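Thread: Modeling a multi-component assembly for a lab meeting

Hi all, long-time lurker, first post. My supervisor asked me to bring a structural picture of a complex we are working on to next week's group meeting, and I have zero experience with this. I have the sequence lines for every component (425 residues in total). Could someone generate the structure of the whole assembly? Inputs are pasted exactly as I received them:
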Amino acid sequence: MERIKVVHYLNQFFGKIGGEDKAGIHPQLKEGPTGVGQLIQKESSDRFEVVRTIICGDNHAAEHLEEVASVVLKWVEEIRPDLFLAGPAFAAGRYGIACGMMCKAVQQKLGIPALTAMHTSNPGVDSARKEIYIIETGDSTLDMKRVIPKMVALAQKILDKAPIGMPQEEGYFPRGVRINVRAEKRGSKRAVEMLLKKLRGEPFETELPLPQFDKVVPAPPVTDLANAVIALVTEGGIVPKGNPDRIEAHNASKYCKYFIGKINDLTGEDYQTAHGGYDPVYANDDPDRVLPLDAARLLEKEGVFAKLYDYYYMTVGNVTAVASAARYGREIGELLLKNGVHGVILTST
Amino acid sequence: MVKEIERVGLPAIQICAIVPIALTVGANRIVRAIAIPHPTGDPKVEKKEEVELRKKLLRTALKGLTERIQEQTVFK
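Re: Modeling a multi-component assembly
Sure thing. I ran the full set together rather than chain by chain. Output:
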């Protein structure tokens, strides 16, 4: 039997070094399997051989992700295993982020298949599920016995280059990959059948699940517009010409703010869009079409409102993770509130 | 994003072309934009007219910021 060489990443707890008090430990190397690694070997009927275990403290990993990733890459590359596994991390957020990051790094930089597992609430899911397979777990180690076989089975398929089934069949988080399949019935028939099931109160499965969102109680309104400070925010990617902060055209990793205190009109000579999800011609011709600065200035001069805030905030809202967008919004909102802004106009494309 | 800005207690209105998406993501104050690639402009009209159009959109948005609302509202 040809054995599959595996390097396995664990946190300090599963690596049997210690609890929260050891969460600051730097990456450590152990030859052979540790704890979960032994389970993995056993589940694979010893076809998988965990040759190395890399253990790192949760705090250290989450705070120094790139530094830890470079150490992990070095230790993985020395061995050139067939497979890299991390976790399962269950609902442990720092651990999940680290597992996702290490898997992404190993798979992208070294071309070695990588796989992890965690709970749906884990922020590591959204940070890595597009790039790697993440098996869905329960929120505690009680689920270990169910999860390890799934990890082993999917890893085996990836290594064998066997066809990978749909997320619900294999138990991984949807990666947003669309595959064309030929259905037996045409779309209209499927839609009517689904509708009939819905009307009858029978269970049905949508072909296009929508993400779930929560609601927010409306904020109190601007009470005195004539004395209000208004800020402009956009998800439409308007940046100074040349995109000085190199914001990404899709899945933006940040938001930026730019000074507009002395500017009355945005022109295509000085501004552009960095957004990769819509035809940029109109915005590049006149960026006011996405960030309406000229009209806002005119209304300010007319006294409709007191002052336009001296900066605008922007990001690129193009396949940007809901979790990232939520954070950008929260941080921008807090900053604007702190700086005396009374109301916000946000444009999106 | 607009929802999260409202969550910190600051009224925020979203000008966007696809109102159903704004409703789905939970924006409380919404104004329908002109089009996806030019939410606050219209390349088909004269420059001067376009600025007026933009001002009109912003006036609607400002009005939306001054209204006390109980639920998601699309301002016209």
